[in-house]
Amino acid sequence: MPDTGIILHSELESPLTYHSFAEKVLRALSGETGIIEPSFVYLPGVPGGEEIAKETGVDFFSVPIQLGVCYFLKLP
C-alpha cells in the first residue's frame, strides 16, 4: 500500500467509533464511493493539504477525507 501520510484514527476514541471508521474503510475498498470521514492526516503529504498546513501552522490535523478503493482519494 502506498504511503499516504494518513494515520488511521477517527476523532473520537470509542470502540464504536473505531468500528464505524473501519467499516467505512472496508466499504470504500469494496468500491463504494462518496464516503467522507474525519481522520488525522499528514497535511503536506496530501493534495490540498499544504494550504491547510499553512493556515493552521501544523503538519498533522484532523480533516474530512474522501475514502476510495485506493484508500484515500482527496480532501473534500
List strands and helices in order, with pairings.
Elements: E1 6-7, H1 15-29, E2 35-42, H2 49-56, E3 60-68, E4 71-74
Antiparallel strand pairs: 1-2, 2-3, 3-4
Protein model, in words:
This protein has 76 residues and is α+β, with helices and mostly antiparallel strands. It has a single domain, classed as L-2-Hydroxyisocaproate Dehydrogenase, Chain A, domain 2 (Alpha-Beta Complex). 30% of the residues lie in helices and 30% in strands. The protein contains 2 helices and 4 strands, in the order βαβαββ. The chain has helices at 15-29, 49-56; strands at residues 6-7, 35-42, 60-68, 71-74. It has a 4-stranded antiparallel sheet. A hairpin with a 2-residue loop joins strand 3 and strand 4. The two termini are 22 Å apart. The model has no long low-confidence stretch (mean pLDDT 75).
User: Which structural class fits the helix and strand makeup?
Assistant: alpha+beta
Write the H/E string, N to C: EHEHEE
Q: Summarize the biggest pleated sheet.
A: 4 strands, antiparallel
CATH-assigned homologous superfamily: Lactate dehydrogenase/glycoside hydrolase, family 4, C-terminal
Helix content: 25-40%
Q: In the CATH hierarchy, what is the architecture at level 2?
A: Alpha-Beta Complex
Task: Write down the domain tally.
Answer: 1
Shape: elongated
Radius of gyration: 12 Å
Strand count: 4
Q: Strand content of the residues, in percent?
A: 25-35%
Measure the end-to-end span. 22 Å
Detail the poorly predicted runs.
Answer: none
Indicate the CATH class: Alpha Beta
Mean pLDDT, to the nearest integer, reads 75
Alpha plus pi helix count: 2
The CATH topology name reads L-2-Hydroxyisocaproate Dehydrogenase, Chain A, domain 2
